[in-house]
Amino acid sequence: MGHTFLISVFIAALPLKPIKPYEGVDLGAPATAKKEHAGLQWPHARRSIRFPPALVREVRCGMSIITAEAIRTDRLLLLPLRVDHAEETAAVLSDPDLHTFIGGSPAGVDALRSRYQRMLAGSPDPAVSWCNWVILLQERECLTGTVQATIAPSADGLVAEIAWVVGTPWQRRGIAGEAARGLVAWLGGKPVRSVIAHIHPDHEASAAVATTAGLTPTDQWQDGEIRWRLDLER
Which CATH number does the domain housing residue 180 bear? Predict the structure, then answer.
């Protein structure tokens, strides 16, 4: 029985439970909004303030703007998420076992379309960027999962919190690790200072992927999960 290759990010705190800011920094969205970016099925947080879509899709750091771009690895192509990816990803991520550590159940095509529209509209906080990709296995020309990076300012510079999920039929092939390495390498070319993730202590598969991507566990916990971290060289 396969388990998800998912690192629950700060968008993966329990719904309606306030999330702890990263080192005292306001990460710009309540727990439910962060769940939404993780690709789970909790509803997007209700907000009374709306920013222009072109603004909320970007992180501005000085003169720098970070947006999702295509990322190529040896076997994979990470493509920026589109709404029309929903039909294929719904099938790829349809195994209930993928929710062993995160709860809930797989979303259908219509629910994913709506979710992707909200995700692509961006964070309500214009200082926070939600970057999302689908994982394309080039030799088979099919999608195998998704990866995400939520990028927010901190006292020490930009922090990216990452997550990934690979469909059960495509697990145990090194896809999650390769995708995570590619994502971290891409972040290393941006003005990002640190990469973090939160992993359930019993989720050995996610811990292995995090290790492959260069992250190491810290002594910090959040909502029952261990914070993993990689400080990028500058």
Answer: 3.40.630.30
